[in-house]
Amino acid sequence: MDMGLAGKIILITGAAKGIGQATALAFAREGARLGLLDIDSEGLEALKGEVKALGSEVVTATADLSTGGGVSEGIDNLLKAYDGQVDVLVNNVGSGAIRTFDQLSDEEWDLTFQLNFMSYVRSCRKVLPILRQREGGVIINNASDLARQPEPVPIDYSASKAAVLALTKGLARSEGPKIRVNAVAPGPVWTPFWTKPGGFAETMGQFHKMPPQEAVEHEMKLRQLPLARVGTPEEVANVIVFMASDRASFVTSAVWGVDGGSIRNIA
């Protein structure tokens, strides 16, 4: 389906793997022009080749998005390639591990919020002055089902993603009607976020005292997902592309769950 995104300039943070990677490729198939930001330079280079193979223009920048300087310099490098212009910002970067409240130090809380929340604040601060000068600007923030339905672990991750939803709602009100601001809230999605060493699967295994794969399956049973499976990055990317397009022109301040039915409340 043609989403009318050909030629649009899309910036994506945390683009090298998982949902960010799938989102970049989905936009590339629509003919968008991409600016991709991540700390993983090798992953970015590989993705750059895939995007070019789809016929789309792409620039990349390597940056530590948990720091103010990293966000600012990284986005500046992308904007230079596009004459300081941008149409859509996708805040996607994030990380987490399964730790109880008692296990979390102040430093670990701060690291979680610096990457998962403050990077979004800083990215928005960089691009909003540009989007305010254009028509139809869009910001999409990647949150989580845990922002709306927290579990005992990972409590720091859940809190950071709840903050992302508050940011989304506040900006949607302050920046309308020219700029639409929405969030996607994925449930469990099988990405390197889960599978990497020290990621959700490994640390969930430690928490449940099970092998990682068994622990994930056990967690899904506990959450009683109606679709009874973990999602794919592409399933989230499809929703992000729709929300960036004019087909979602009356959608702002929304939180779109892509979660297999994990959220049970009506609101």
From TrEMBL:
**Highest taxon of source:** Bacteria
Is Protein biosynthesis among this UniProt entry's keywords? no
GO function terms (MF aspect): oxidoreductase activity
Q: Name the UniProt key words of this record, in alphabetical order.
A: NAD, Oxidoreductase
Would the keyword Phosphoprotein be found if you checked this record's keyword annotation? no
Which is a Pfam family this sequence falls into? adh_short_C2
Q: Which Gene3D superfamilies match?
A: NAD(P)-binding Rossmann-like Domain (3.40.50.720)
Family, as annotated: Belongs to the short-chain dehydrogenases/reductases (SDR) family.
Designated name of the protein? Short-chain dehydrogenase
Query: What organism is listed for this UniProt entry?
Result: Microvirga ossetica
